[in-house]
Amino acid sequence: MAAAKLRSFLFLITFHFMLLLQVQFSCAQNNVRAGYWAAGSEFPVSSINSTLFTHLFCAFADLNSQTYQVTVSSANQAQFSNFTKTVQQKNPCVRTLLSIGGGISDPSAFASMASQPSSRKSFIDSSIRIARSYGFHGLDLDWEYPSTQTQMTNLGLLLNEWRAAVINESTVTNNSRLLLTAAVFRNSDYYTLNYPIQAVKNGLDWINVMAYDFYGPGWSNVTGPPAALYNPGTQVSGDYGITTWIQSGIPANKIVFGFPFYGYAWRLVNANNNGFFAPTSGAALTPDGSLGYGQILSYISSNNATKVYNSTVVSNYCYSGTTWIGYDDVQSITAKVYYAKGKALLGYFAWHVGADSGWTLSQAAYKTWGS
């Protein structure tokens, strides 16, 4: 009887071990099909279709400008602390990263933090602590953007020290190492400033290249493709940006290509001049012209707007009267995913999942990449 119980016990142990190995193998990921979730979007975490993503970024944690520690506002703590558990209910294999900073954060706080070893340590230690306590699988730096070469140099120091810290933490605790990524400017140079390429290459698992916001009514008085893949005769395109990163020394398989699930609306000066680079008189429909993909579809439907896909630049636009909207639709998203695969990039990401409509763009991207 004792021998039978022992055999039964050993069988159960072996079965569960093999099951664990099977789950781990099925979750093995050699590409990135990612999306950012924005707390300010008011899109519930529980509504995210995580089956369409390998990685999800929770945005944004804050940087305290006095202590240089990573913090989460009280309004976001419940959602952030349950983020991983919530999205893994639909997809146990999805990996989550806590993104720090963002476009509306104070870049001077990041510059000050990165300037001294003690403040860098405060940032690094607190980021690891909060990632572990909230159950994230990694951390994402969104410093927009280092504005001097000294700041770029300090960014390199930060990345090297961050990498060493997560390796040490995983060794001491026997946990899987936290992923480290960063959202970066579309080119390897921020205008005249060069990113610290060696530190980026060594310190990060990959970079998220923000290949969007090329044209918008807040900084462009003509219509334009907000996220053109190509833009003949200019350097303002996703392809040009990716090329600069690869030429700088970042391997293609450490680059993730970014595209937007939103667009921009301009007010045309002349309703009859309604193509790319037509004169405009400012934003339309919203204060800054920004509209999520779902909002754009609603506008098209309600106003019987004319839709155009330009395969030369790989961008969509629509117009009705003097209102003109540049955005990405299924055609351009599909073409960009094909581009990323053709360039042997690690994958793609979208900003942000809450702006999609019925997961139309997310499904197109996921299926286009394939298995």
Automatic annotation (TrEMBL):
Gene3D superfamilies assigned to the protein according to its UniProt record, in alphabetical order: 3.10.50.10, Glycosidases
Top-level lineage group: Eukaryota
UniProt GO cellular component terms: extracellular region
GO molecular-function terms, A-Z: chitin binding; chitinase activity
Position of the signal peptide: 1-28
Residue intervals of the GH18 domain: 31-371
InterPro entries hit by this protein: Chitinase_II/V-like_cat, Chitinase_insertion_sf, GH, Glyco_hydro18_cat, Glycosyl_Hydrlase_18
GO BP terms: carbohydrate metabolic process; chitin catabolic process
One Pfam family linked to the record: Glyco_hydro_18
Keywords assigned: Glycoprotein, Glycosidase, Hydrolase, Signal
Recorded family membership: Belongs to the glycosyl hydrolase 18 family. Chitinase class V subfamily.
Name of the protein in its database record: GH18 domain-containing protein
Organism ancestry: Eukaryota, Viridiplantae, Streptophyta, Embryophyta, Tracheophyta
